[in-house]
Specification:
Blueprint: E1 9-13, E2 24-29, E3 36-37, E4 42-48, E5 52-56, E6 61-66, E7 73-74, E8 79-84, H1 90-94, H2 128-134, H3 144-152, H4 171-185, H5 223-239, H6 252-267, H7 274-288, E9 294-296, E10 301-303, E11 309-311, E12 313-315, E13 318-320, E14 323-324, H8 332-347, E15 361-364, E16 386-388
Parallel strand pairs: 11-15, 15-16
Antiparallel strand pairs: 1-8, 2-4, 2-7, 3-6, 4-5, 6-8, 9-10, 11-14, 12-13
């Protein structure tokens, strides 16, 4: 993020170092026009087609102007708003923002109600106390995915027991608290409940043929899901020729090696997963067939000299592909350690932009769901190949 100082204000700009073709959407402002902001405090959440990132405040001051609204698409380096380092002026307060033209800043005598929707009591901003709590010092340690869940289900962070590093709250912690709360409300044992849906929109209107259709609710597509769908169509129909081959592999020696060394790896601070073995095998195979680690274009095949392995990971809100950079330089222990860290951050919603850039070959372990063969396995274009890993069976 870049900040350009003027005599009156400091500009808030979107990160400019995004990978070519990456799209961003302004997910939400964490402050309203007229509110005080501190330097490095999370100010905006941007959702790209790969990961949710925070834009921090470039300076202390007052949020004077919001130029890009929530759910609008954002270009790299685009001006999003301005911070005033003096007292907010009448002109600044009247500029378009979350409070609307001429609206008083939240927290003033004439502006007690917040513009942000959420649960709450009559006459009060639905999520005012929750937002106030979550925007404090503790909130800066929460990932965007965690904050979304807390706000969606009206949970106070103080009520959730964190199991992450240093007691940090993870997505799994929030989901467990939601489930336990639902179970308690029905008089069941904690952990036995299903998650309550966040007030779905029920639509029982007639379809185009005049027939009554079943009651339903709609879940808007996130930027991640829309981009996944677009890439599936793009990869299969428009970008490059495809071929799928299927092999069976005897993993007996791998399992024996893992059994022999997993405690040793655990003492070294790494979980020895099968994915680490597959990553090392992919590196060995690419050394034999470098063309698999390449980029397809209409005129040539660009073969990469480094091996950056994308690791497809199921996370809250969809599939993300963090990248294990320079995998050819890692031994099995460092591969296992780096994979564990990447997957943990992916599932906590804590990936940074650089964590999902530059992949040259991808691994997708669809076997975790019991799948023997998944087709099509979508190649993350412009990569040339992907390795799909099915279910491990004892024979």
């Amino acid at each position: 993020m870049s900040a350009i100082a003027t005599t009156e204000s400091i500009e808030i700009r979107a990160p400019s170092g995004q990978e070519e073709g990456t799209r961003s959407q302004l997910l939400r402002w964490l402050k309203s026009v007229g509110e005080l902001v501190a330097e490095h405090e999370p100010l905006i959440e941007l959702e790209t087609d790969k990961v949710t990132v925070e834009v921090a405040s470039p300076a202390d001051g007052v949020l004077a102007e919001i130029l890009k609204q929530e759910q609008e698409e954002v270009a790299p380096g685009e001006l999003l708003g301005r911070i005033s380092q003096g007292e907010p002026t009448q002109e600044a307060s009247a500029r378009p923002g979350l409070g609307g033209p001429g609206a008083p800043p939240p927290g003033t005598a004439s502006g007690k109600a917040s513009a942000r929707p959420g649960p709450g009591g009559p006459g009060a901003p639905p999520s005012a106390s929750l937002a106030s709590t979550m925007l404090g010092a503790t909130a800066r340690q929460l990932s965007p995915a965690v904050r979304r869940l807390l706000a969606e289900y009206s949970l106070d962070p103080a009520s959730v027991r964190g199991t992450g590093d240093g007691g940090r709250i993870t997505v799994a912690d929030v989901m467990r608290e939601i489930s336990d709360s639902a179970a308690s409300a029905r008089g069941a044992a904690p952990g036995a409940g299903r998650l309550p849906p966040p007030r779905p929109h029920v639509d029982a209107s007639a379809d185009l043929r005049g027939n009554e259709r079943a009651a339903s609710h709609r879940v808007p597509h996130s930027a991640v899901r829309k981009r996944i769908a677009a890439r599936m169509v793009e990869s299969l129909l428009h970008t490059a020729p495809h071929v799928t081959t299927v092999f069976e592999v005897d993993l007996g020696e791998v399992l024996a090696h893992r059994q022999q060394h997993r405690e040793e790896f655990a003492r070294a601070g790494a979980a020895l997963t099968l994915t680490a073995y597959f990553a090392q095998a992919a590196v060995a195979a690419i050394r034999e067939v470098p063309e698999a680690n390449s980029r397809w274009t209409d005129t040539e095949l660009e073969i990469y000299d480094t091996i950056n392995l994308g690791i497809a990971t199921a996370a809250e809100g969809g599939l993300v592909v963090p990248v294990l950079h320079a995998a050819e330089s890692l031994d099995l222990l460092e591969t296992a350690r780096r994979l564990e860290e990447l997957v943990r951050r992916a599932r906590d919603g804590a990936l940074a932009s650089e964590d999902v850039r530059g992949g040259t070959f991808t691994l997708s372990n669809h076997g975790v769901s019991g799948s023997l063969l998944a087709t099509p396995i979508i190649i993350p274009q412009p990569q040339s190949a992907i390795l799909g890993l099915g279910k491990l069976e004892k024979r």
